Amino acid sequence: MKTIFITGASSGIGKATAKLFQAKGWNVIATMRKPENETELSQLEHVTLLPLDVTRLAQIKSTVAKASSLFDIDVVVNNAGYGLMGALEAFSDENIVRQVETNFLGTVRVTHEFIPYFRNAKKGMFINVTSIGAHTSFPFTSIYNGTKWAVEGWSECLSIELSMFNVGVKTVSPSATKTELFSHNSDITPLPFYHAAEKKMLGMINPDSTPEEIADVIYEAVTDNKDQLRYFAGKKSKAIYDRRQEIGAEASRKELKKLYFDGLGLENNS
Ligand code: NDP
To answer: Are 172 and 217 in contact (CB under 8 A)?
Structure first.
């Protein structure tokens, strides 16, 4: 039986991924900040819950040590994350640091802790959940997108580095999905100068994919035996990526400015 280790498995894409792999006959280590609150995964056979806050280095070390002492781990899914949303100047330094520590450094640190284990085993795979926001640009999610661009670039470098030891690195980039991703912004006070533009942008987000659809692509990435870095997931991801490839980064940026800001009576929007 193969074993998969998943971060952020308490909800959304992480939980759907845990359930899918369990249903496919895998042994699942579902990690989350508060395993004591989990009532669904804890009922499933071959699912082990372990505590993991990816911003806590000591806990990363202890949980990876515990997991690898219990099971022979084949795959690590770096999924934990949240979406900081708002104008950059509305964020406190603490908001910014927490977003980077969770989405980027959390992924790096969990991976860093697992590398010696996979290198010794001469096998293993990291799946890093990024976003379509890692391949294009949106206003009012600049730090979030920045962390996801960082994870994409870092993953590409690492996929070359770790191929020396038969260890794979892949990314899965979802488009808008029905989850709690952007529900952690209650401490951000919106600034009046951005109000109309933020409202328009928020109205354009249509989370039309399900966590289960994204989990299917993670399963494909884990099992297809292909030497492929990027996987697009969700109803719009590939189309958004292809449009930017088709017209180029500069034209794409101009097109997005028009899309988000036309009709708002803003200056300098050509
Ligand atoms: P959810 O909010 O439903 O799930 C996020 C998970 O990450 C939760 O389990 C949450 O745990 C966990 N998490 C947050 N902070 C930490 C932390 N410090 N340590 C450990 N776990 C943490 O959102 P999604 O399922 O959508 O998000 C999963 C991934 O998918 C994220 O990386 C996100 O960026 C990515 N994604 C999502 C998209 C979407 O539209 N939903 C689109 C593109 C990418 P807790 O319950 O404790 O808060």
So the answer is: yes
